Structure formats: C-alpha cells, structure tokens
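Hey,

Quick one before I head out. I ran the complex with zinc ion overnight. Inputs first:
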Amino acid sequence: MSDAITSVFVAALLAAWAVRAWLTRRQMRHVAAHRGAVPAPFAGSVPLQAHQRAADYTLDKLRLASLSGAVSTAIVVGWTLLGGLDLMNATLRDALLPGWGAMGYQLALLAAFTLIGAVLELPFEAWATFRIEQRHGFNRMGWRLWLADLAKGAAVGTVIGLPLAALVLWLMAASGGLWWLWAWGAWVAFNLLLLVIYPTLIAPWFNKFEPLADEALRERVQGLMQRCGFAAKGLFVMDGSRRSAHGNAYFTGLGAAKRVVFFDTLLQRLTPTEVEAVLAHELGHFKRRHVLQRMVAIFALSLGALALLGWLAAQPGFYTGLGVQPNLDAPNDALALLLFSLALPPLGFFLSPLLAQWSRKHEFEADAYACQMADGAALARALLKLHEDNASTLTPDPLYVRFHYSHPPASERLAALPAPA
Ligand SMILES: [Zn+2]
C-alpha cells in the first residue's frame, strides 16, 4: 500500500509538472512567434504597439509561472518525501501535545504549515506585482498598501480559518467512520455563509464601495435588469484603481442579497452602452444557471474528494507512502488533511481541461444571452477594449487554451458576436 501510494503520487506530481511546463513553453513560443504582426481579424482594430505590449506582458507572466511551477513542485517533494512535514510534526507534537492537548497541537500544525507556505509564496507575489505589473503599467500599489493587504488577509484567514479547522478536526475525532460526510456538510455551510458575509463584511475592509452615482447609467442598468427579471440589492462602484489598472464587473452575494459591483476602472473605460452589454453577459451567467451549476459541481467534487480522504486517512500506508510516520499517541487528522492538500492538486490538474472547457462553453452562452438582451456589437467593442487594457494576448497556443483558458480566446468570442463597428 505504502509503495503504491508513493508511486501514484510521484507519477502524478511529475506528470502534472511536466505537462504544465510543456504547455507553458508552447504558449511562450506561440506568442513570441506571432509578436511581429497583428492577426488578420484584428488588423483594423488593434494597433501593432498594443499587440506587442500584450505579447511582452504575457511572456513575462509565463516566465514567472514556469519558475513558480518548478519551485512549488520542489516544495511539495520537500514536505512529503524529503521529510519536511514529518520533522515539523514530530517537533510540534513533542513540544505541544502535553500542554496544549490534541486539538491545540493539531491546530498549531495546520497554522505552521499554512504560514510557511504563505511565506514561500511571497517572493513570487511581490515579483508579480512590483516587477511585472509595474513594468507594464498596471500596478498602482505601493509597498505600504501591499503589506497592509497582506496583514488584513492573514487576519481574515485566521479569524475564519481557525474555527473552521477546529470544527473539521472535531468532526473527524467525534463522528466516527462517516466523519467526511459531516465535514462536507460543514464545508458547504461554510461556503454559503461566506457568500453572504463576504460582500458586506469582508470586501469593504479591502475596498471602498459607493452606490453608483451616475443617474443615466443607473437607469440604463436598472432597465436591463428589469428586462432580464433580475433583482439585486444595489449597484456599487468599487475603487479597483487603488490597486490595479485592470477593469472588471461582477456580482456577489446570495439570493435577495445579490449586488452588482463595477470597478471604477471599467466605468472610466467603457461607454454606457458597452457597460450595459458587459453587465448583460454577467446576468447571462445567472439566468442560464451557470453560477448554480458551478456551485453544485464544486460541492459534488469536494464530496468525492472528502470520501476519498475518509478512506485514505484510515490507511497507515497513506502516511508512510508520503513520507510521514503517523502518530501513535495522538490523532492523525491534521496530518491527513495536510498530506491530502499536497497530494490532491497534481491529480486534480488533469481535470482542468474538462473544467476549462465547461467554463468556455458558459462564456459563449452568456455572450449569446447578452446579444438577446443588449447590444451585441457593443459587447464586442467592450471585449476588444478590455483585451487591450488587460494586455491579453490575441494569439494563444490552442493546446494551452484547452488546459488553462476559462474564457474563449478573443478571436473565437468575437467571431460569435456581431461586428464591433
Ligand atoms: Zn463570463
């Protein structure tokens, strides 16, 4: 059992890393090879300079992604087969178990693991923001705001994560062989709760939300929502420009507490007709039940994953196969959760083409809905502007798209819309 676990884990980890690295190389070559000329369908609408800026930005991001992919694979090996988690577990267990008890020691183990993982990721995040986003003119954050965000994120993570972890550990200890079913129920309830409290309690801590003041735009948006039979609790503008020049629009909340949020950067860039078309696309995701379907799929996948963990956690070979000696005099629940969180992503990676394909299908359906309810040509114009503003490449590698693109490439999306004249 132990050897079989090791073999499957190593094979999945190496395969996921190799496929990812190969796709990244393909994408880099493809983007670089097409840097010299704007592709034909965009020749009239996208200047060469914008096209090349997008290529350079994309290449910079891909270089960082390939480095961070290699480093995170090495970190997973370090935690597991090289004995990092085993060493940390033995140290914390011997130091804390007598005084803090089983729950205290396990929470400390989860917290220490999370903290170390976050610290190891920091250089990559800082590089992405202060080198790449900065160099291409997107970053609007200074170190002060970046550090404040980091501190707030850690505080939110602790306040929300620790009680959830304690609840799951308690369920694992107290509810017998079907603990994973209870843990799944807690996980679903937690996610629904988060949907309710995120827009009203958490997001305002990071950004300012003001009611949409533009009278004409508000009437236009409300008209659209009425046509679509959609009720929302409010229309808000968020100061996205504090952090980045990228623009966006989204919905948050659940049931009657739904709200529409526009980034200020989006409103500055698009005309009212274009904003309306973008919003119609977002409404399409609700009206075509994409949001609900995604949520159900995520809950179903997590039920499957937890059932698998329920079985694995009871096998000694699961621990030894991943480089950890299970505890003899303390619960192994926190260890099982950590090992699972390290071993699952390489396996899950091979689901990503399916999920991405599904998501791209939804994007086409939402675009079709927007064409019915608003001006399709305005949506096409908005997409072109957003592509240019976000410096998204117009010439992605088709295979890379299959694995990684949650949205169809611009050429395919625009081909399905009326001409952006
Ligand atoms: Zn969409």
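The mean pLDDT is 93.

Talk tomorrow,
K.
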